[in-house]
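Re: How this chain folds, sequence and tokenised backbone to follow

Filed under: protein folding, tokenised backbone structure, sequence and structure records.

Contents: The amino acid chain and a row of whole-number tokens, matched residue for residue.

Body of memo: The sequence and its backbone structure tokens, given next.
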Amino acid sequence: MDENRKGFLQVCEYLPAGLRLTIKKIPQFMQDSLHEIRLRAEKPVCLFDGKNSYLLNRDGTVSSENGRAYCISKRELDETFKLLCEYSVHSFQEEIRQGFITLRGGHRAGICGTCLLDQGRVTGVKEISSVNLRIARQMMGVADELYQKLFLDGLHSVLIVGQAGSGKTTLLRDLIRQLSEGRAGRSYKISVVDERGELAAVWRGVSQNQLGKNTDVYHLYPKHIGMSMAIRTLSPQVIACDEIGSEDDILALLQSMNAGVSVLATVHGSSLEDVNNRGKIASVLSEGVFDFAVILKGTGCPGEVKEIVRLAENRFGR
């Protein structure tokens, strides 16, 4: 079965019976290209293919009109939430607290509702009002060019810079896989600190995304804790993490550098100058944690590289 269709069918299994039967009637090309299924209580079911949004009609067709739209009831939405949690909300409490649930196949459900707070800390979500089902499609080979340019002569520490939707996580994921698999003849030991669960997409202790044969995953660990533990216990050659930014992250990155471990990381930004204008990240650049910065083109070209900057030769470098 085609992987795109397989992903669509896997996500459909988490929908209540009536909606599941209806959505499976949409045209095959849309099933194969669908990115998101958005469910909002008492509102039309919305489908997103990466560029455009459509409403699901009661007869399984799609349109931009509200007239025949399939409106999901609160009861159906609650049933969806139970299916996502496998009827055991407690088992998924930590992920729910962070606003998502990882599904079999690496898919993800974003959860929106009423926040439960305890002394300023989010402890859970109740009265679920909307669910966003994101269909995962791992892009193999997207890091081929980057690997060729930076890693044929050995390891380097690389910071991937891009705006939201520019493909930072996608590129990092494939780079981890290629280094772990030993594409150039040598497999490296990699520790992935997956604080948001987006790199590995762990489900029941098993990574749903392919990160290579020589990769260990710290699932939902705060980045600074996972990095510190990896250095102490797993002797990694590479530590990889997504979306650095906090002071704790910076200290952990410096610790990794001092331990002789290469680092792969991403950071939100439109350019190297943009990143350097933020005090916390600027310290990482000036201390020489990263050998290269990879600047991505943007949301219209996910995963595509605009520029590679050798930081040792740049004014931000060591």
The longest strand covers residues 121-134. Residues 168-181 form the longest helix (14 residues).
